[in-house]
Amino acid sequence: MADTDPDALERKIERTRAELARTVDAIADRVSPKRVAERGVEKAKASARGIVTSMEDMVLGPRAYAPADGEGEEPADYPAPNIAPVLIGIGVVVVVGAAVMLLRRRRSR
Asked: Which top-level group of life is the source organism from (predicted)?
């Protein structure tokens, strides 16, 4: 037989309302422009980190050795190249690319 207790029905309705409110809040949070932008920035940062790591490996080569003295110094016969200009260039390219993408998206709306 159906549950006709008014107090039980009221509690069930309140639970359902609370669940629905949480669901709507989660959906709103997921599609909010701020959250979408944050996820895009995090994705771009992760991509940039991967590019930088790849460039370091390409320029420096894989670091397959460990310094003998434990101080983190490189051997004297293997001078560290200056990769700062390369990294700065990559950073500039990533920032300009992201800015161009954002501007194109805003214009298309």
From this structure: Bacteria
Cα distances (angstroms) measured from residue 43 to each of 7, 11, 49, 79: 49, 43, 10, 33
* DSSP class of 78: S
Token pair 């397959």: residue: 64
- Output phi, psi for 88, to 5 deg: -65, -40
Angle among Cα 13, 14, 15 to the nearest 5 degrees reads 90
Both structure tokens of 82: 């200056």
What does the pLDDT look like over 67-80, one tens digit per residue? 555 555 555 555 56
Burial of 56 (0-12, 13-18, 19+ CB in 10 A): middle
Q: Mean pLDDT across the chain, nearest whole number?
A: 80
pTM of the complete model beyond 0.85:
no
Torsion sign across C-alpha atoms 93, 98, 101, 103:
negative
